């Protein structure tokens, strides 16, 4: 009977360790999700800047071509 009680106690201790590790893992995931959201926001802003620059370059090229065609 003592062996059974010891085994049950060992299982409960192991279960407690697993629960603690699971809580730690969930907290780590929450932190990672927050970090990923910040990175996603930065990438989105960089993308918008690149699109804006690309629009400016295209407009500049169009004006250059128009200028070359109009002044023969």
Walk me through what this model shows.
- This protein is an all-alpha fold.
- The protein has one domain (1-71).
- It has one helix and no strands.
- The protein is rod-shaped.
- Keywords: Membrane, Transmembrane, Transmembrane helix.
- The chain crosses the membrane at residues 46-70.
- This is Haemolysin XhlA.
Distance between the termini: 105 Å
Strand fraction band? under 5%
- Please provide the ordered H/E string of secondary-structure elements: H
Query: How many domains?
Result: 1
Q: How many helical stretches?
A: 1
Name the helicity range. over 70%
Over all CA atoms, what is the radius of gyration?
31 Å
Quick take:
This protein is mostly helical and 72 residues long. It has one helix at residues 2-70. The chain is rod-shaped.
List the helices and strands and how they pair.
Elements: H1 2-70
Question: Notable features of this structure?
Answer:
72 residues; mainly alpha; 96% helix; rod-shaped; transmembrane helix; membrane; transmembrane
